[in-house]
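thought: fold this chain, then report.
action: predict
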Amino acid sequence: MVTGTAAQKHRQTAWRNWAGNVSATPARVVTPTSVGELQEAVRRAAAEGLRVKAVGTGHSFTAAAATDGVLVRPQALAGILSVDRAAGTVTVAAGTVLKDLNLALAAQGLSLTNMGDIMEQTVSGATSTGTHGTGRDSASLAAQIRALELVTADGRVLACSEKENPEVFAAARLGIGALGIVTSLTFAVEPLFFLTAREEPMGFDRVTAEFDQHVAENEHFEFYWFPHTGNCNTKRNNRSQGPAAPPGAVSAWVEDELLSNGVFQAVNSLGRAVPAAVPAIARVASRALSARTYTDIPYKVFTSPRRVRFVEMEYALPRERLVGALRELKAMVERSPLRISFPVEVRTAPADDITLSTASGRDSAYIAVHMYRGTPHQAYFTAAERIFTAHGGRPHWGKVHTRDAEYLAGAYPRFAEFTALRDRLDPDRVFGNDYLRRVLGA
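observation:
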């Protein structure tokens, strides 16, 4: 029997991620209000033989941040620390939420060049796991980092950039929490600009046949395929002179709230209760979204609200392998008894030079598969992962996958470089956990 005191302690320390598929019960939770307090927390944990992990807002679907040791919540370390307009950079504390950063930058007439489609994550959590949007020329959030600082396993603060500790900088921009706890990030920014978004339904055969053309002709191209149908919805974002012409209030509410969240929640709940209805629902849902064009500042175009909870797997493939893999995925779904109520998302990224970036050294395309929270996802994800790995796929570090260090060492030419750096910076695995043991090795 659990006593009242023990139960209260459990409620205070138990942590669960956004999707609800990962939980942990750390020995203690700390919320440092200064870098000095964070350094002391790391030193104390190391002295006690406890492992330390920092957790953002829990939007990862893996146990990358889970620990039975000391859980660090960096949310008190937030806000813009400095702006260098001449250099085109902004330095922010690690616990800053992307939404707050975007609002603060816009107020100063600045913007990130590219971003993902949600902005609920902390900047350190998003970059450490490889959060990305879609782009022909502009890459992930981590690729936009120009400098960073992190607390290492011995409690020191290490400053990193292309000129200072460059070997650490090459890896720590996307470090999966294995190299230390990030305290600040310096991003490249540019004067605020306008994007014109063109959303248009398109058939699966057409969009796959014209995929290379769409990527070449648009700064940011992505599309969603609705399983059990031949229907897709495409989105093309390109810079424009403006002025802002956002969707009308009614149109925005219908598309972004009613259809993408309210109705979508209802149809997923129905699909979970009555799986046989999913194909019919998918055919109706895939025809509900209509073509529209609008213009606004970047974060209002790149991001959208996502309130329907799900679990997700995403793999980065060599871009030239995307169409073949997606056609195999479609054929697999059609011949299987699977019932998939969530659309499949396809995006792209140019090659970058980050050691463990999913786009490291190669132009990449991403396929993301989702299942509504509470719906069995193992069979779908297993079948999809088999296709993705056959095409040389690299799993997103913050999304569901079953790959281990042996597979990943073959997928990343610089894998040994990262693990050697980890051995140097954290030989006692102060920042280790079960997930890192699996993906990086002992």
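thought: worth noting. The longest helix spans residues 249-273.
final: tokens above.
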